[in-house]
Amino acid sequence: RMSFAPLSAHTCAVTGTAETEATCLVIPEHAPDGRLVVAIGDRAFAGMTSLCAVMLPDSLLSIGRRAFAFCTSLEEIHVGRNSRLSHIGNRAFTGCDRLSVLRLGHLRNGLVCEANAFAYCSRLRSVVLPQGMTALSEGMFEGCRRLSHVCLPSTLTTPSGNPFSGCSGVTGGCSGSGSSVTGGSIILPSA
Fold first, then answer.
1. Burial bucket for residue 68 (CB in 10 Å: 0-12, 13-18, 19+)
2. Along the chain (191 residues), what's the average pLDDT of each consecutive run of 10 residues?
3. SS3 sequence of 100-150
4. By C-alpha distance, which of 48, 128, 9, 8 is closest to 27?
5. 16: which residues sit within 8 A by CB, 6+ positions away?
6. Which residues pair with 25 in a beta bridge?
């Protein structure tokens, strides 16, 4: 049983669940009252240590601050092929220790991630970021010690401090983007 908060006459945010020991969450596209689910609220599922997988609806536009923070068993985030996801809040997935692969390359809405969105996901090893993304936030992948493969979009235009702080193992990436990661910082191609 999930809880929802109206955002407008036709939309809402999911704000949590009574099933705090759930291992898999399927976020519905519509709330019981028929409103379209477009957001996951701040801290909605934070600290759910039994949660292993979450399936996000295509209608979802944003994930709030610390929404899944410290879900230490979270291994899978299912983002649909037709997803409209465009915003991931500050520390939304920080401390998700078992997350190993992050595939967001199919998103087409110019994804924006706030600071430390995936910080300290200690088993994260591979990341694919979407075209249309123009910047990476400060500390976005900070402390992801096992991160070794990052596919950066060619649309990156804004240097962003140090999104890969503490990720000394990043050695490979997708060719053709022109960007690279050196010492935890992004090196953009010169114009």
1. buried
2. 96 96 96 98 97 97 98 95 95 97 88 95 93 90 92 80 84 57 52 47
3. CEEECCCCCCCCEECCCCCCCCCCCCEEECCCCCCECCCCCCCCCCCCCEE
4. 48
5. 2, 3, 41, 44, 45
6. 54
For 124, counting Cβ atoms within 10 Å of its Cβ (0-12 exposed, 13-18 middle, 19+ buried), the class is: buried
pTM given for the model: 0.90
Amino acid identity for residue 179 in this structure? S
Amino acid at 25: L
Q: Sheet holding 87-88: strands in order across?
A: 2-6, 11-17, 36-40, 62-63, 87-88, 112-113
- How far is residue 92 CA from its own chain's centroid? 7
Q: Are strands 76-79 and 53-56 parallel, antiparallel or unpaired?
A: parallel
What amino acid is encoded at 31 in this protein? Answer: A
Do the beta carbons of residue 132 and residue 155 sit within 8 Å? yes
Answer whether 154's CB lies under 8 Å from 176's CB: yes
